[in-house]
Amino acid sequence: MNKRRLIKGLIDAAMAVCLFLLMAYKMAPNGLHEFAGIVFFILAILHCVLNRFWFTALFKGKYTVRRILGTAANVLLLTALAVQIITALPISETVFAFLGLAKDRTSVVIHGVAGTWMFVMGFLHLGFHWDAVVRAFRRRLGSAADHPVAVWLFRAAAAALMAWGVKASFDRAMGSRLIFNAGLHAMYSDPSVFRFIRDYLAIGALYTGAVYFGLKLLQKN
């Protein structure tokens, strides 16, 4: 693995950790939530800089179905991030409290909805690049990765995780939170860190897996 690829991988992993911390709003202190948001924003800028070729190629080349879907996911993700930053300023109680901006319920609700969109779109975005992750693991594991038992174990694990992701999505009202039918109150406090990680990991896997396997089907057709 070259240095640039390693740096990109570490940044992406750190962004994923920040996403989970941001979703743990009801569990973590407000200061940690705001700090995680700032770190995520900085990492997002670095991610965009390292992948700036995507921006320069936006109006070049042919748009296939995969490229259209990927571009739409990226635009929605960037929009959600921008809304998160804008609405974070007036509702900040720690980092930007010195600004003295009036806190209103509308900003709180929009911030919560944009946060849910950012989580969902972030893992959908990952799904468009999961093939590269799979290839990296295959290189590491060698021929063992193509063994029928290993292949079916991976598929079974993915299916189980995605199935739990469907249940967790309903339990945590993810759909309602995307369309303003539920706000920050839906991000209830969990009885354990394990339950929180289990559910949101499964939800993230659901969105990533849906894109990954959906693209596989698209390629076959």
TrEMBL record:
Keywords: Membrane, Transmembrane, Transmembrane helix. The chain crosses the membrane at residues 9-28, 34-54, 75-102, 108-128, 149-166, 200-218. This is DUF4405 domain-containing protein. It comes from Breznakiella homolactica. The lineage of its organism: Bacteria, Pseudomonadati, Spirochaetota, Spirochaetia, Spirochaetales.
